[in-house]
Specification:
This protein has 257 residues and is of the alpha/beta class. It has helices at residues 26-37, 49-59, 76-90, 113-144, 168-188, 223-234, and strands at residues 17-21, 41-45, 66-68, 95-98, 150-155, 193-200, 244-247. α2 (49-59) links the parallel β2 (41-45) and β3. 45% of the residues are buried.
């Protein structure tokens, strides 16, 4: 049996760095909090600059460096600026968390195209631009720590794998995000950069509040559950690639949001 130790982080004396989009609330905030508790320096981004600054102050209580950069994932210039700001602040990228996302409900027969376009801009195009901008630093960081590599974690949705009424456009955008993660693995996991799409059903956040008339929030998945899974991915060696994780609510029909 091979008993060689596997490095679970950067070399001694260095601290790993993560970039988290959508970090001011919901699952993105939960993941950012988990990363801070685990000792990762952070770049966090969201659209609301004031809320982002307050979030950064809270995260610094864990003794890590936090660099807030406000921006809109639907704006290509903002996305590129965010990636460059992280590189300038931290000079390494061990974990990229794609947490920003938007969604809207509408039947497949009459979903407004402007909402479709917005969801694909934020949920797919923005992440692709971010990956293109961040990939050189991800590769460089993975090469510096080949036992551990670098991780991309995308907060997708079970609707990207199983249909859900009224969420056709949202599900299609998340299916594209899942496919994007698979492409990262096919192209660069041999270089130590792997991607995992976490695909939950309804999580108890403000984004799922529109379902409260039929789903009690106490029956939804907890933010802490998804954050725990994301943290587990960051601890894996470069030899373990997890393309996606599906998280469903308990009940007789597991493949549902």
């Amino acid at each position: 049996m091979n008993t060689r130790a596997v490095t679970a982080g950067p070399p001694e004396g260095e601290r790993s760095a993560a970039l988290v989009t959508g970090a001011s609330r919901g699952i993105g905030l939960g993941v950012a909090q988990g990363l801070a508790r685990a000792g990762h320096d952070l770049t966090i981004t969201a659209r609301d600059a004031g809320l982002l600054e307050r979030t950064a102050d809270d995260l610094r209580s864990w003794g890590v460096r936090v660099h807030p950069v406000a921006g809109d994932m639907a704006d290509e210039d903002d996305v590129r600026r965010i990636a460059r700001a992280h590189a300038g602040a931290h000079r390494r990228l061990d974990v990229l968390v794609i947490g920003a996302g938007v969604g809207s409900a509408g039947a497949v027969g009459n979903a407004p195209m402007r909402r479709f376009d917005k969801q694909f801009a934020v949920n797919v195009r923005g992440p692709l631009v971010l990956l293109q901008e961040a990939l050189p630093l991800l590769r460089e960081t993975a090469a510096r720590n080949p036992a551990h590599g670098a991780k991309v974690i995308a907060l997708a949705s079970i609707t990207g794998l199983a249909p859900e009424p009224a969420l056709s456009a949202y599900g299609a955008s998340k299916a594209a995000l899942i496919s994007l993660c698979r492409s990262v693995n096919a192209e660069v996991s041999a270089d130590g950069v792997s991607a995992t799409a976490i695909c939950p059903g309804y999580v108890d956040t403000d984004m799922s509040a529109w379902t409260h008339d039929r789903i009690d929030p106490t029956d939804m998945i907890r933010v802490e559950d998804i954050a725990e899974l994301a943290l587990a991915v960051t601890r894996l060696s470069a030899r373990a690639v997890v393309p996606e994780m599906v998280v469903t609510r308990p009940g007789e029909r597991p493949w549902r949001a």
